[in-house]
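Recap from last week: sequence in, structure out.
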Amino acid sequence: MNPQTQLRVHMRWMIRRDLPEVLQIEQQSFEFPWTEEEFYRCLRQRNCIGMVAECDNQVVGYMVYELCKTRIHLLNFAVAPAYRRRGVGRQMIQKLVGKLSAQGRTRIVLEVRETNLPAQLFFRACQFRAVAVLRNYYADTPEDAYLMQYRYRPEKQISSETSAARRLAS
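Predicted structure tokens:
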């Protein structure tokens, strides 16, 4: 499998039988992984949603997020190591961005460990920005977290800003 090949994945709701594959990716991805019970506890809440990215009937990534009144809070997000840097994570983020609107939820927020540079760079490449430092955020270490945010920008607004910038440049 060529690591440079971009994959198309199928996104769907996470179901109970996905959990073994999700837990395996979780274990491979994090120093302090969520337990099976933590996944169940979170997903039992009515405003929490789990989704998986599938390729050839295999779970290659997942995300767990909370729907709040004005934002989506991304709680957990990972791509299987063998499928990283192939567009899987970007497609997952695009799925979340598609849930934003000017009238409803206008931003996506998440916390990332200060030592998790690959995640910081990935989310930055997806147009997230660090907006705050959360001191001693984690219970398992005295580590800080960066609060990162993606803000919804309507297509009309983007194109009008681009035309305004073109007018100024000429």
